[in-house]
Structure formats: structure tokens, C-alpha cells
Amino acid sequence: MKIENIKPGDIEKRSFEIIQEILGDRKLDPKYEAIIKRCIHTSADFEYADSLYFTEGVVEAIKDALKKGAYIVTDTKMGQAGINKKKLDEMGCKVLSFVSDEDVVKKAKERGVTRSLVAVEKAAKLDKPVIMAVGNAPTALLSIESLYKEGKFKPVAVIAVPVGFVNVIESKERIIDLGVPAIVAKGRKGGSNIAAAIINAIQYNM
Amino acid sequence: MKIENIKPGDIEKRSFEIIQEILGDRKLDPKYEAIIKRCIHTSADFEYADSLYFTEGVVEAIKDALKKGAYIVTDTKMGQAGINKKKLDEMGCKVLSFVSDEDVVKKAKERGVTRSLVAVEKAAKLDKPVIMAVGNAPTALLSIESLYKEGKFKPVAVIAVPVGFVNVIESKERIIDLGVPAIVAKGRKGGSNIAAAIINAIQYNM
After folding, report:
1. A137–chain B nearest CA distance, Å
2. pLDDT computed for residue A53 by the predictor
3. pTM
4. How far apart are CA A66 and CA B38, in angstroms?
């Protein structure tokens, strides 16, 4: 099969052109277009053109927080690794993941709950605005829901895109019902790569 | 929506049961079933039941190499982060990624090629058996193809699962034509999460 001869720096641009060609006449909301296309780019899955849900003003809220050096907290090391740190560093932002921290692992075991749940409790105690980027654990979303209802956690926004089969659809619907600023991939699909893609799309467009 | 009350340790088991329920009567090759199901588990995408291609004996070859302390080389930090290190450490295996190494970045710039290509050249010089886990860069696969044809690189196996729109389908087909031991996600889909899932599925079943 023929390989297209293309400069490294042009591959991403060409990819987005092909995505647009495949989308054809389909119009995406300009406010969310860059995010939706980057999710498609990272997964080659066009379902994201339909499954992504945005609360009003969420993208601007995230951008404002990033400009002020917010913390992004992911529920996996993989999500953390996938987020581009260059510009975030310049803005004084940090990308954190507590899921493998010794104290988190210990508490989760003692209480018989997931590490993801305990890691959210740790995030809620940070003294900075927090953007939660959840690509893996429904229990992280349920923990956010509880703490938010109890007035103990007010994240700037929740990127709610876990993937999977147990409590995934339900926990995402609960984030939508909660009314917290959120970007949600409805349905079973999502992942740490999608969480990272959403954060990257937002920072690349500011 | 109702949340299923389930112990943390049972979530994965229940997920695989649901995957089997959705697959229904569909029979997967027992040799590859664990790998295919883990790719579905990590993506909620049932296309992997059809798109994964295995060369004869590839899974056993990877297991044998892991037992002897092989190196797994990924083309992204995200793939590296997604691979479970516990058992691999015990077997003396390492999970490496050269794509952000200073020397790789420098050489790629000088030659006007991708970092992924140069990173493969670095992997080819390792003095251990190497399993390539490529979830992102078609150019990594093309580099493997060239070096293999020139007799300069004999990886134990190539996990060829880049995702995307430029040269992705073509580069995977070339790995299939090459005859190197390989696991390939045909088509546009794949990703660092899929590369990690394949390595994890293999190590969890040995």
C-alpha cells in the first residue's frame, strides 16, 4: 500500500483535514468543534461527534482557570502522561494523579472502596482550583457527586469520560444531573486518552 | 439512574461478564480471547472482535521473551504509563520509551523525520530482546519495516496498533506483509491504551 509522503509537522494538520472530509456536511458547534475533532483524532471513532455533552460555559471556565494556574487531577497515570505539559507549565498549572499514592492505596484498602474514590477526596482538599479529568473510574465520578452535594468539593469542571461496562453510563448521567460544569462522553466509551485529548484541545486553543 | 453496588475487586470480573453477554454466541479464538476482550474492556469498542490480527505463535513468543526479561518499547509515554509494571519488574522486564529523549528529539529535528522513527532506531540497538508496542506513530512501524528488511532489527514481536488518519492503515498492512511476529489492529483504530491493554492481557495470562 502506498505511503503518503508528508512532513512530520504536517501530519496532524492533514489528519484534521481528513476528519473534516469524513464529517462531510455535518456541522459541529464551533464552540466545541476543536474538542470533538481532537477526540476523534485520538480514537478514530466518529461516535464522539454525537456523544460529547457540554454544560454552558464550561470551556471558558476551564480556560480561565488554566490561565490562573489551576490543577488538573486525573484518575490514571495514563491520563496524566497524555496531557501536554509545556504550555500548562508556563501558566503555572500542574497535572496531578493521586491514584497510586501510598496514603490513597492504604485508605482504600482499609475502607474497602476504590483508590479512585479516595483520590478524589484528596483532590477536594487542594488549595487551588481543580479540574477533574476522569477517563477511567466511575467511582471517581460518584465520589465527586457526593462531595459536591455535601458542599465539600467545587471543581472548576469535571471531564467525565470513563470507559467501561459497570456503572459507567450511570455515573456520567449523574454528573450531568448534578449541574456541575462538565464535559461528558455519554455512553460506555471514553478513556484516559479521551480525557487527555479534551484537556489538550482546550489548551491548544487558548 | 441506579448504581450497581459492587466491590472494587469485582468490577473487572463483572465487566468481562458483560462483554461476554454482549458478544453473545460469537466465538472468539481461545488463543486470543483474553487479548481481544481486554481491548474491548479498555475501549468499549466491539470492533476489536474483528479487527485484531495475530501472526501464528506470536503470543507464545511474547510470553517466552517476557519470562527471559525482555524490553518492551512503546512509542508514547502514555503507552508506557498504561502498562502494568508489577509482574514485569519481577520477571526483570523493562518498559521503555525513547520518544522524548534529548538525543532522539535532536536527531529527528536535524534529519526532518519524526521522533518516533529515530526512537525505533534507538530500540534496535538495545542488547536485549525487544517487544515493540506502537499505539501512536505509523512512522515507527515504517522504521521497523526498513530496519527489519535491512537485517538491523529483529524484534520479538510488534504490537502494531497506531490510531489515526495518515498512513495508519497502510503502515499496519506493511507490518502484516513483512512477516515479523505481530499483533495488528487493522483499520484506523488503536491507540496507546490498546497497545498497553495487549501487553497487559498477555502478562496477566501467564
Report:
1. 10
2. 98
3. 0.95
4. 35
